[in-house]
Amino acid sequence: MTSDIDFIRGLPKAELHLHIEGSLEPEQMFEFARRNRVALPFKTVEEVRAAYAFSNLQDFLDIYYQGAGVLMTEPDFHDLAMAYFRRAAADGARHVEMFFDPQTHTDRGLPFSVAIDGLLSGMAEAKAELGVSSKLILCFLRHLDEEAAFATLKAAEPYFSRLGGVGLDSSEVGHPPSKFAGVFKAAHRRGLKLVAHAGEEGPPEYVWEALDVLGVDRLDHGNRSLEDPALVERLVASGMTLTVCPLSNLKLCVVDDLKAHPLKRMLDLGLKATVNSDDPAYFGGYLAQNWIETADALRLTREELVTLAKNSFTGSFLSPAEIATHLAAIDAYVA
Ligand code: ADE
Ligand code: ZN
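The joint structure predicted for all components is written out below.
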């Protein structure tokens, strides 16, 4: 029998929760800073990595937004995406639904088109060269106001046919989903899929709002849903997919030990959980590393690993025919 590590790496899977700006490795940060003549407050890669000790989400976000400041041109975003896709392909990813934060870049003065055109060209190259398909999800920054989100949605209008959906990220506590009810309604009217981070640090009420006020098609994180049995029942009954990020939860102190991570409990409750990397350059591991460390800490069975892989495709925004093809590939791999 192959080892669990080999089994996991070879298992066809999708990544549904990945912030492309969170795949910026320190080495790349220096390369882009040099290319673009941007000054960095760090002298060495080691110094950067030493700064990645976070007590909570905000600690991380402060350094993550600072890091993104080295991204200046379309080729930067293209190269960032391709570097991520090469790692994802090596980890057995066949499909990726990738977040980006356009406001992080437009607020620094970059035209809206720079990030999105660079990412879309990287996505096309990944499909052609690596056989990895992808969709792009535009996230609104929830620490900014809804008016800014509306302006971002308007700027994105020429790209609607090439967008997989819209999402909501950044500082959760104090910025409930209901703050963005109007812009999500507008995105829904334009036929875009909806996702939102909720229940990462925020209370179960935020998850209820993501469901009932925003009408999300998929929930990002959702860990704190487990505090509310009625909410769990609702998530199970509706077959809602949760994009869970174990190493992120560990690094941001959402859990203090992977052995205490709720992923297995989620599966036992009948929740449609998936495993994802969130911001892999900051949290110590890409897709397969998340799977491997979580499988080990929680003693996941092969059956549970196959369920997680299947959930990653059935929870994706691929067409039913595409999903069926990926599920058949999982069955063939297991056989
Ligand atoms: N932006 C990037 N990663 C994030 C996370 N884990 N939560 C909220 N916003 C984010
Ligand atoms: Zn996230």
